[in-house]
Model the fold of this input.
Amino acid sequence: MGFITDLINYLCRPAILFTLSCVAFYLGLFPYREKLAKKSSLYTILVSMAVFILISMLNPTFRDVVTKPDNVPIVLMLFLLTFFCWLPLNKAVKNDKLIEEGKDVENKQEAKELVFTWPDLIFSEFICAIVVWSVLLIWAITIRAPLEEPANPVETPNPSKAPWYFLGLQEMLVYYDPWLAGVVFPTLIIVGLIVLPYIDVNPKGNGYYCFKDRKFAITTYLFGFLILWVVLIVLGTFLRGPNWNFYGPYEVWDLHKLEVLRNVNLSEYIFRFGGLNGGKLPDFWLFRELVGIILVIGYMFAGPVILGKTVMKSFLEKMGKPRFYIMVVILLLMASLPIKMILRWTINLKYIVAIPEYFFNI
Amino acid sequence: MAKPTIFETIKESQAWKSIFRHGAPSANARNRVLVVLMNVFLHLHPIRMKKSGVRMSFTWCMGGITFFLFLVETITGVLLMFYYRPTAEYAYYDIIALREHVPIGIMREIHRWGAHSMVISVWLHMFRVFLTGSYKPPREFNWGIGVVLLVLTLLLSFTGYLLPWDQLAIWAITVGSNMARATPFAGNEGPGAALLNSLLGFEAINAGSDARFALLAGRLVGEATLLRFYVLHCIFIPLVASVLMAVHFWRVRKDGGISGPL
Ligand code: HEM
Done:
């Protein structure tokens, strides 16, 4: 038993959990898509999730965290999300086959048929409303809304967490400074979503579930939503304790857990360990951070051009320049999060560019 | 002639007929049209629609559920407002009273769980709209309206989080709003603020004038923040969201109804 809990605690470490999620994401979406789209897969996953949670409830730490009233919705969401990832996948696999055979997609015929809103739609809506209302009532009767001690501005709880739907952003603070994680990235998500319809020029896949017709768009969106948003929320909610340290799902939240921080800036790598400038950091920030600045500028400006000339050449041709460059910049910014994560996990990199004098750290 | 049943009597009455100008919708196609056309709420819908768009397995009814939850939040929210006073002195104790002394003391629970559910349902709605490619022409603009609605939903939830005025509330809002301090140019710990100050020649951006200060109405989460969030939560954001929802629904219809294969 101890061995299993230790193993699960270990597998939940941010680097491992994130990597495993990415592997699962790839396997589920590519090689095993058709297997995953089967009903039996859905049942297996749902039952495994339920069994995992139920058995884990025996562990007091796990129980405390998962049954915190404000964390219950996340558990609910994970089940809903499992179902609502499976359903479109199932339909996409069917439609992909139909398209390959040169047939109409599943709902093509029905799109030509007209029905009366009353009763066809109104009744379904009514039933939905009743179901949602019943769930809400039962939930409200069984679980009290949380109310802690009265507000006290001098007593900071540890950990202090934002509301659960922002915990992905708070988790991002481990890797990026607030001006990026809290301001630039959220703005970018919003802007990116709004411009999405104008950059995605692929006319296929409008009005039906599919995968093969829009592989790139779907993979990117799913990665952003499931991995960079949902997995980070789960991590931030269930696996982060006092001082935002990592705690395994069965690990007691010990206030005194010490995590040795030995994160190092790129400039320190270059000057301290590389021995440049006699092992001393230059005083002037521009010299100190020059390499980092060049790397970042290169990534943001040369990156799109290079991608457009090489692997993404066909995209550039299809989309035209303005659309292509907007898309690639957004894509590169999105990719910068996992890149920074990996750099942190592998070489303990803290900042690529560190100019604390101007609050400008990347 | 047989004696009319009580239902028939009601349906023949002047009062009933003044409310429902048409006969039972089950009777014939004309009445089915009329029931949707004559009812201000139902006429958000078209009279007829594509069969593919009615399918629950296509839309998951998620937009509808989101709207339903918004209505639930509005109604329970008004009930909460009857008892809740947004001041540091009363807020916390009014919340306790809502549980202990107010009849049917689960209004706050319904409101809170409804809010969480709405966040989830709006994500799922967006997820399905994406997966069916429904943001593609001619629905690009409505997707944009949707994104703004998503942001408003999160802001509604965020501003409401402060109102119980307990430790959970103020610290969650403190953590959340600390980010604003780092806003480039507009936050006192943001990149560019020092540059701006030196260009202007005076300290335009400091802890008492930056983006976070504007958000919180102070340097800390305090009573002024409570009032500010209360007004945003109860009046401003719901109002804007309602208007945008009206636009959103209107556009769903004007863009050709629920999307389907062309
Ligand atoms: C408060 C939030 C929202 C409400 C109440 C709402 C409501 C609805 C409703 C009732 C529909 C009809 C079809 C359906 O139920 O799926 C709809 C369709 C649509 N929604 Fe939303 N929505 C909201 C947020 C969003 C968001 C966040 C997005 C995307 C970013 C979005 C984009 C769309 C689009 C593009 C359609 C047309 C879908 C189609 O034609 O298939 N909406 N919305």
